[in-house]
Amino acid sequence: MTTSTSPLAGGLGRIAKSLEVRMLGLALVLAVALSLLSPYFLTQNNIFNILDQSVVIGIVAVGMTFVILTGGIDLSVGSVAGLTGIVLGLALQQMPIPLAIGAAVLAGGGIGLVSGVLVAVFGLAPFVVTLGMMAIARSLAYIFSGQTAISAIPYDLSNIVYTVVLGIPANVLFLLALYALAWAYLTYTKGGRTIYAVGSNKEAARAAGLNVLLYSILPYVISGALAAVAITFSIAQILSADPLAGNQMELDAIAAVVIGGASLYGGRGSIIGTLIGVLIMVMIRNGLNLMGVSPFWQGTAIGSIIILALLAERLVNWRSAR
Amino acid sequence: MTMATASIEQTASGTIMLSASGVSKRFGSTRALVDAALEVRSGEVHGLLGANGAGKSTLSRIVSGHIARDAGEMSYAGSPFAIRSTRDALRAGIALVAQETSLAPEMSVLENIFLPELGRAGRLSYGALRKRAHAILSRLGRDHALPLDAEVRRLSAAQKQLVEIAKALALDASLVIFDEPTASLSPSEVDRLFDIMARLRDDGRGLIFVSHRLEEVFAITDRVTILREGTTVARNLETAQLSQSDIIRHMVGRELDAIYGNREAVRATPSGEIVFEVENLAARPEVRNVSFSVRRGEVLGLGGLVGAGRSEAVEAIFGLRPRDAGTIRIDGKAVDPRTPADAIALGIGLVAEDRRAQNIVPDLTVRENLLLAHIGRHKGFGLGYGQRSRKVTDLLGKLGLPADRLDSNLLNFSGGMQQKVIIARWLLVEPTILILDEPTKGVDIGTRSSIYAILRDIAAEGVAVIVISSDFEELLGVCERVVVVSDGLSIANLPTSVLNEEKLTLLAAPRTSTERNVSLLRSLSAEFGATAFWALVDGDELICLGAASADGAPEIGLAAGEAATGAETAIARAVTEKSEGFVTEPETGLQTLLVPMRNKRGHDLGWIGLTLAAGKAVPDPRDIVERVIARTDAEETTGPNR
């Protein structure tokens, strides 16, 4: 036996991989179809566009993956993004950029900590806890902002988006680094494997001496903190913090995680799947925009593709189970 | 077990209802059925036997339309078997009474019985349904056993099963499959179920009885078919012509004796010092007062019936449930594990009872399941699998698990292999105390013997091993000593050399009288400044179920839970004579009165003994007898529950 074998090469890996491979296939089919429909789709410019548009939702989806892997859900990420955006906007009036970002991330993590404790310690349903937190965070965002967007954002903040490193914009680079880090964490560390074990069978994880409490709470903290990071990149681009920002972001994030093959019951899913899920979502939206499809029809298109993708997956599973 | 109702009548060779041959079925890469054959006639109970994973359930699920076969000739009621769904099966008159029932828990009994009819068009007449339900139940002889308006989720397991059977009859099923129907039933409920099955058979229906409980197979079936690894290895054997060893030979292809290995070798193992002690443990309501201790290198059994509080006791020790009282000592030092992580850090391992719910993490690979407890103990940020790689390689050899299957899904393995992986999970972290709760539950006979061998190896390496089992034969075969737990109390602590299945059964039987008898002992001993005891007397042997001593009362050489021959005690003559009055021992002058306790039906409940010091004035024996009678006449204790 070689201990260097990654667990991803294993049975779980095989399941996840085969699913990832199929979803990657779907992504490629979409790309080909869209490039046939629109000559602009496959241009270098547009590819960077797609990656750029993936950053915000992609960051939030990482946190959502952690939470969903434990069998939970975080409906509050959109509102937390809105609130922490306001926190960032206000903090930027008082302190230098890094400290302000730190304050926003801390606020997001703090909200996640509260949700996590309510779920893991008090045993409340994640759906309900984060639904409540969603309402609270949005309401606080309005109150702190005085119901208007904060547009006095220092221009320097946009450096985190537009600085080009090795030919890649900083925000895209950050996204890729975040995914690599999250993947390594979930695959190669005690904490990562414990998150899978907790989602798959909490009883067994506890009986094996794993720290179930810590790793049930941590994902919510990560999710809240990453919501703040995501909105930071968004504000850096538009140089305005809107209390309405992040509206329905949680739905996009959940959709991306689910398209990426994660089970809402926990224990099953992968960070690479989530990345593919994010790309699929963004590509569809981008393609539809290029074709000039009305934004009102985009919801129908995206919703249908999500459902069809999962339906196809289920049919494949049924056939192999029989 | 008495099963008068299930006496085997000569098979009235009815017509062939179902015949199948060459049936095969594959799930992914697993061949569940290779070449299965089965023939069921009307008016018979046909046993479908086999070790776990032999394909019994797969075959019965094919017959009941739950899954489709890959290949094979099948016919039903004289025409080719064309059943594609459970609906087809029900329409054709085939019903499955499964372990996990398919009832709607929130609906009433009546609605459940007629569930398939509720979907029909038109108005339902509850009055008519009620009448039909009564008719069906009285045909089963169980008219008053089911409240028709009760919600199904409030019913006992046996009652739910009765609803399932009534549901099958409401559809007038002519072929009924019972898949492990007795697993969650008490012995008297099993008797009642067999009575119902006999009635169904006598109606001319065909019954398939899927089980691996041999006693029950002998009690109810007319013919049996035996599967091994997906292939029918014996078909249509007349039950009356079979012995247990015949069946086991077909099931496992080897003799039974071999599975426990060398029992004498177990006995001969020298025991080390006490490493683990539990005193007066309580975790209410299930655990009231449990004490035991284990030596290094010893295999201790915790025996008793299901529900006696054994699992709850070890869960309380392991930090899986809160303790109300009690002391736990490791190497003489008091410890206080509050969580499993605490317990593991103290060197305790627990293979919990429910493999699927408490042990297996289904989405992780075999390797990760194996290394789960290691991750729990690992201090670093990474996985640290490298530290254990040698031990993993060693263990794989012992388990007979090919290394290339480490990365597959644990659920694809047999129950036996899953259990071995879970045991290995604990061996990897090298515990000093390993507790195994029902380690061979749902494990086939072949794998059992290798699990026993593993347990012996672990003990030989100096680990203190505690085995919980409801299978007394297993306890006697594997353990050096058994602590019997009954109704949350540890009531006996005996070396297996003085035990047999009957004695264990006797000790394990829950006694509603225990507390009353013990309080009688206390009052007697206090009143007369004497030693009072309660013992089962079998010829010359005594098994003490309780004792109480006043200050300065004489030692009789018999403590609660101990077994001894009369000669080994200080009251040898009294035990030999069993006289109606006080007997004085020739050397010590101890004066002992023995009073038998009997319930209303005359069942022996043991003896109450009262020993006074030499020369002390004795009370009138008749007074004592009356007090004992007053105590025991009040209620009947349950008999040995097996």
Automatic annotation (TrEMBL), chain A:
Molecular function per GO: transmembrane transporter activity
Keyword field contains NAD: no
Keyword flag Transmembrane helix: yes
Pfam family, one: BPD_transp_2
InterPro entries in alphabetical order: ABC_transp_permease
Major localization class: membrane
Superkingdom of the source species: Bacteria
Record field: transmembrane: 23-43, 50-69, 99-125, 131-153, 160-186, 217-239, 251-284, 296-316
Membrane topology: Multi-pass membrane protein
GO cellular component: plasma membrane
Location within or outside the cell: Cell membrane
Chain coiled-coil ranges: none
Keywords of the record: Cell inner membrane, Cell membrane, Membrane, Transmembrane, Transmembrane helix, Transport
Protein name per its UniProtKB record: ABC transporter permease
Organism listed in the record: Arsenicitalea aurantiaca
TrEMBL record, chain B:
InterPro entries: AAA+_ATPase, ABC_carbohydrate_import_ATPase, ABC_transporter-like_ATP-bd, ABC_transporter-like_CS, P-loop_NTPase
Domain ABC transporter stretches: 18-254, 269-512
UniProt-listed PROSITE patterns: ABC_TRANSPORTER_1, ABC_TRANSPORTER_2
UniProt entry keywords in alphabetical sequence: ATP-binding, Nucleotide-binding, Repeat, Sugar transport, Transport
Highest rank taxon of the organism: Bacteria
Matching CDD domains: ABC_Carb_Monos_I (cd03216), ABC_Carb_Monos_II (cd03215)
Gene3D superfamilies membership: P-loop containing nucleotide triphosphate hydrolases
Record's keyword annotation contains GTP-binding: no
An example Gene Ontology molecular-function term: ATP binding
Family label: Belongs to the ABC transporter superfamily.
Protein name: Sugar ABC transporter ATP-binding protein
Originating species: Arsenicitalea aurantiaca
